[in-house]
Amino acid sequence: MKGNEHIEGRGAQHQVANRFFELSYEMRDDFLNYCAAEGEEATDSRTTFIDTFPNTIVNKVNSPDVGLEFSLNPYQGCEHGCVYCYARNSHEYWGYGPGLDFEQKILVKRNAVELLEQKLRSKSWKAAPIVLSGNTDCYQPIERKLQITRKLLQLFLKYKHPVGIITKNALIQRDIDILEELAKDNLVRVNLSITSLEEKTRQLLEPRTASIKKRLQTIEKLSEKDIPVNVMMAPIIPSINSHEILPLIKEIAERGACGVGYTVVRLNGAIGEVFSEWIRRAMPDRADKVLHQIAECHNGTLNDSRFGTRMKGEGNIADQISQQFAIGRKKYLSGRERPVLNCDLHEQYKDGQLKLF
Questions:
Q1: pTM
Q2: Per-residue pLDDT reduced to its tens digit, 119-163
Q3: Domain ranges of the chain
Q4: When you count CB atoms within 10 A of the terminal residue's CB, does the N or C end of the chain come out lower?
């Protein structure tokens, strides 16, 4: 790759060193010249899948402003390649980089189903919503083959346990049969991520995700089966998708969504470097403007870890975004509510079937 050429099909545009490693590597010009002369690829761009067998699978979420208490991630790393993804930083804890490694090296938790069943059968476990994809998408492309998420949902149904889902992949339509059964007892709620109505923007921000057309279709398919679906417009990025708030809320309301939420983009840790490199290649004409406006939302910095303000931002731009969502909810989603998930059934199904006594 030369100069500022954009890498198609990937969000991150370069490798980023792991901050926990003492050593790092760089791609030297003499090596690149050698590869060019020999007709060889300098890097392997293929996605690799690494089997792991963790000891636990349900994670306690301690952040006060995330909106979930427990999460479960069958995969670490995500081939979707969303350039803004906050989960990139977590890949460093697994020994990989937050740039291209995050998209190309996917850890598969092969014993996820067994671990969840142990958790749900545990005498000490008290039912509380467990959210699939609190970190990386449970419906990323490899799920089509491995079906770990589908098997997890079958367990939630068997034990009558509440589950939330966060995804931006239309593959969730495959599991409507299970979701419909869960919804009958108010045991499931889907959060579908849609950041833009413009396909070109989607392709740049989220190169390996489902198309906007398929995601809008997914809202309709779920709603038709009375499966509650909330849309997350996350993140809002000034001067990239901030002008689409009202049109998007109108569109999802017409498709049957029960609500909408949002976050303002923040570029913590290595994500600042990943995003900055990406935007200077993908949108060079507006790179400085976008980066300055993001900083304006976070007290002059791209990196914002402050509870209470980090998710929504502050200042004039953040206020304008908040006001648009308030207007959109009132105009297009008035009277619609997101149901509170049912935590009362699980205790009767601790052994996988209804207890009569």
A1: 0.87
A2: 999 999 999 999 998 889 999 999 999 999 999 999 999 999 999
A3: 47-334
A4: C
CATH number, span 47-334: 3.20.20.70
Encoded amino acid at 71, one letter: S
∠ CA(262), CA(263), CA(267), 5° rounding?
155
Cβ distance 11 to 83 under 8 Å?
yes
**17-22 CB contacts, 8 Å cutoff, 24+ apart:** 17/97, 18/92, 18/95, 18/96, 18/97, 18/98, 19/92, 19/269, 19/270, 20/92, 20/93
- How far from each other are the two terminal CA atoms of the chain, in whole angstroms? 68
Strand order in the sheet with 229-236: 58-60, 70-72, 130-132, 163-167, 188-193, 229-236, 259-264
Q: Tell me if 118 sits within 8 A of 152, measured CB to CB.
A: no
Contact predicate 191/163, CB 8 Å = no
> Looking at residue 100, what is its pLDDT?
85
Mean pLDDT of 230-246: 96
Q: Report how far residue 340's alpha carbon sits from residue 34's, in angstroms, rounded to the nearest whole number.
A: 60
